[in-house]
Amino acid sequence: MTKSKRMGIGMAEINRLKEIVETLRSENGCPWDRVQTHESLKPECIEEAAEVINGINNYTKTGDAENLKEELGDLLLQIMFHSVIAEEEGLFTFDDVAKTVSEKMVRRHPHVFAGVTYNSKEEQHAAWEKIKKAEKAGKEWHADYLPEAFEEAKELIEKAKERKGYK
């Protein structure tokens, strides 16, 4: 299958997923899905991320990728859910999310996308850090909230373990 054919199928499925989430959140959709917010979906988001880790572990130990595929889909659903909510709020769209990460990866890999040559892994890493620092200029305060987010994530993981019966 050619790259363009794969991309066409992928976009059709992404659009289908977006339509499904929009339908779930519509007036005639699911009452639970309709009332979700960025805040209320935090537990599901962290739980799905942990389940992706489990999927990777299962694949590594067994060679069976089915669970990983399913869990990546569940995490993608969380990303789509947050993107649809953000679009409803007039903040950004799923396309904006994809564009932002694509642009970041191209910027941070000039040795792949812009013909830049590095003489060592250390030089490449230093360049990565310099690019990242330039991207974050004026937004350094974002990192001030990271320790709090890690603590919240730990609490959410503990609650997820309780819900799943592992505590």
UniProtKB/TrEMBL annotation:
Superkingdom classification of source: Bacteria
Keyword Transferase: yes
Keyword Methyltransferase: yes
GO biological process, one term: response to stress
Keyword field: Methyltransferase, Transferase
TM stretches of this protein: none
Cleaved signal peptide residues: none
Occurrences of domain NTP pyrophosphohydrolase MazG-like (ranges): 36-113
InterPro entries in the record: MazG-like_dom (IPR004518), NTP-PPase_MazG-like_N (IPR048015), NTP_PyrPHydrolase_MazG (IPR011551)
GO MF assignments: methyltransferase activity; nucleoside triphosphate diphosphatase activity
UniProt protein name: Tetrapyrrole methylase family protein / MazG family protein
Organism lineage: Bacteria, Bacillati, Bacillota, Clostridia, Lachnospirales
